[in-house]
Amino acid sequence: MLLKILCYLLPEFLVDLTFVTLLLGLVGTVLVLRWMSEKRTKIKIERAKTQRDSALEMMEKMTLRCKTRHGHTDSSRILSLPLAELVEELKKGSLSPEAVLHVYVEKALEVTKEVNCVTDFLADCETQLQEVKKQQEKGLLYGVPISLKDDVGYKGHNSTLGLVHFLGVDEAVDSVIVQVLKKQGAIPFVKTNVPQSLINFDCSNSIYGQTLNPHNHKKTCGGSSGGEGALIAGGGTILGVGSDVLGSIRMPSSFCGICGFKPSGDRLSARGFCSPVSGMKSAVSMPGPMARDVDSLALFMKAVLCDDLFQLDPTVPPVPFKDEIYNSSKRLTIGFFDTDGYFLPHPSMRRAIQETKTLLEEAGHTLVPFTPPRIEYALNELCLRGFFADGGTTLVDKFKCDIVDPNLKQQIFLYNIPNIVKKIVSIFMRPMFPRIANHLEAHCGVGSVKDLWKHYTAIKEYRCNFINEWKKLGLDALLCPMLSPAFNIGHPGKLFAGFSFTMLYNILNFPAGVLPVTTVTPEDEEELKHYKGYYNDLWDKEFIKGVEGGVGLPVSVQCVALQWQEEQCLRLMKEVETVSRGHKIHP
């Protein structure tokens, strides 16, 4: 009898046992595959770190070789020369290109050992230098060592964006900008660090680690062109190439106390630049220069806006730099505001605008109050909803088989939340935290191609409205706040809305630049203790934690002009630089 019962039950038992075995096998396989993937990721990261260490060793050997061959060089004098004077001495022959390159390689090595900003050495720089010396006509940047942000394509080297996804993929050719810079006599010699995926204004990734602010190592240098900002501020390069889609040139320039410039879309060529979200059109991305002074930015623009650029990339309008506008002495009508009503600036930021306004008026310019129209609508509905039109899936895909940097975990968590959940959570949050709820809902993106077309139409209409307000006041340019001072490390990832001060001009596709005008005072720091913001919400509280401890750090302002009026924007920047330095409020 017992035997009959066992025979009856055995097939069912075997089926259950088979199912459990298969399930356990499947789980085991998934775990093994995940372990193998993580192992491969770690191996790739270690290999990249080893390659970076080798690059730094090559820099060190190069400087030692130079000292052996040429003996003592007056490094301090070379490093102190402004760009225009450096070019002049190089062209005259009073300085040799070899000496200048070796001095900057040595200084870059010193700076990166302090703040971790260099990720790659472009070892063919010495060969490129010899090619430059053979040129019959000396270019506008003859013999100038220049640094490149990680995403700037350079033949034979990675553009990693701080992501394992792009490791090991060497560029087949130089980007158009690099080709033009070489034709103008520049010597690219290093590439610099970025935040993982570029979409953050800190500067850290799982491959190369955290880049520090040269002014204060507890602070971030900003991002995403953070390595450039740190290297220039530390004196390790005189001119750098960054890129800007939400403020990625302007943020690190502000945090590091240097000058940075984002042109209008398509005024320069972005061909050969790497991006984690190719195809996104709502916020216009553009390469641009970063340097110690405004004249250097203008010289860069003049150098690259040439026939070589227009031939290499016919999509760029063939319009050379207009010296007569940049050098004009005509008095300007300048719009200004010290807050946009969405994100209350740091006390030092408002002070910087008001002091600069007064100095510009004393210099004979007319300052007119200006209020950006519908600012929250522009930031959330136009910029963020367009930037994350796919709900963030394209960006998240780049993080597969990667180790998420701790500074980005909160952002990546948000991008991974299903849209339906984001919508539901935003509904419940809106009564208590309306600003954050609207921001969260905007990350859901657009629902269809039809909605995307409506979105593009809305951007076009907003630009028209903004320009109409501009024209009514007869403005030549605009003076406005720039996020300052530098954040404490780790806080930018918790406050994506910090981009609100910059992303507006990517939506509008206006040229915009920043420059330092003052520093944080003890009085500013004391006033910060009473900061409540406009909403006294989680963001306002996070802002205080992010910027506290900033006494002595640079504070910048932002200058803006209408589309295609790069020279006018730089003209205002030059005026601001002149009046601020003349009154000794420059850091």
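Next protein, fold it too.
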Amino acid sequence: MDRRIDDRREESEIDDEEFDDDKNNKPSWKKFFTALIRNESVGSEIVVGEGSISGRSSSRPAYFIHPDKRWYKVWTHFILIWAIYSSFFTPLEFGFFRGLPEDLFLLDIVGQVAFLIDIVVRFFVAYRDLRSYRLVYNRNLIAVRYLKSRFLVDLLGCLPWDAIYKASGKKEGVRYMLWIRLSRALRVTEFFERLEKDLRINYLFTRIVKLLVVELYCTHTAACIFYYLATTVPASEEGYTWIGSLQMGDYHYMNFRDIDLWKRYITSLYFSIVTMATVGYGEIHAVNVREMIFVMIYVSFDMILGAYLLGNMTALIVKGSKTERFRDKMSDLIKYMNRNNLGKGISNDIKGNLRLQYDRSCTDAAILQDIPASIRAKISQKLYEPFIKEVPLFEGCSSGFIKQIAIKAHEEFFLPGEVITEQGHIVDQFYVVCHGELVMEEAGGQENDETEEFPMSMQTYGSFGEISFFCNTPQPYTVRVRELCRLLLVDKQSFMEILESYFSDGRIILNNLIEGKDSNFQNELMESDVALYIEKSESVLAARLNCATNDGDIYRLKRFIGAGADPNKTDYDGRSPLN
């Protein structure tokens, strides 16, 4: 069909096949970062320059990084290690150090350089659109998204605050900027979210470890703040602090700054834990007003933290979490696939679709089941009509017909590599592309006719399956997903129901479909059941129009013409209203 290639190609979209791992070309880290600097491609993670699809050149970003590929995942795990270190060390540096030792200062600089490199990398990492769930490769959109989200916080966190503190004359307010680095703890939470979905790791174990990490990190941070409060009073008053007045047996902490760092930290952590658990034994307690205020705030926070920990433990016992339901369903499917030897290809398709359903559960059509049909129709019309009215197949159709198609359509998502329709199969529905990219292939590499070459690509506002849909003939080509696709499906029964009221629009669709086609295809289309149904409806309307003309009923005549009746159309006896 003439309109299989979408003329409205978005510059931000690109062929996912270009990201397939090249097993024979394994780039090194040196090549990876050299490519980022020199604007070159490494292996298959970064695509450079311009390319073409279906023989047509399209503008592409200079280079970008696919978020699911090997080298970027290695890099994220490398940054994760530094994020864990930074999240733990930042409270420790704030509470226990006023000027880092040389060895720790050099380690801190290395970590900040790693995060600076990560900031640069993030400007080229494609992301998934929350609505369409497709990958966005447009470099401007990637940059704007990152600038609006975490760029400023990440950049401030990479500044050498210890050096700035020393250069500023050791002003205490400068050290508070260290807390910006705690935003890196989000990387750790994202890591645990991925672990929870990993079927290779026990879910209960993962959740318990996560809850323990949350509890220990909160008490670790509080311990560092407790010690910090004791060091901000004048030296003459340090005996009137919780640690300066502490006596454990015969041991006094009067000169606590001279005590070993490890012992000071353990003492602070002990005070933090027993306070959080509200089982304080009385030997450690707040002494001055500032410490009392912080303990009150800390205990109030601990009540919320305790409720969170207990609530999550209860959810683990009753198995009510969304992630656990997903894991249970995935485990059952894996057992079923192994028992029936479905093969690796089908198994991967099933797993991929289940993960997609989990990620997009917030937009699942099941959510709308309890909403009245009239409101569901309005929602479908709002979501799908902008795509349907731009499809070349429906060019010239009435707005009422477009609205009915939008109401009857339902959406589905297909992962890269999936075959939607196969050559030689007869389909009873046709498809409209909302987002994504597909490729049309013909078995054996043969040509369908002299004007079409395979494979061909199709993107937004494209449609396929209509030839088999209308003519009841085998599908002339195979349609395979190249990039994650969001498609609208319209089944034949719903389409025929719409034609009962809008058969004149059906004639427009047939004319759009046969435009530019050879006579054999036109004859085949004209003999299809859809064409015969439209012909019959037109003949019936022509007969009714003749009756209205014969009776001189102007009102009926105007109504029939308004409904799409053609005054030049003849009835079964070859008569028209003019006759």
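About the second fold: The two ends are 39 Å apart (CA to CA).
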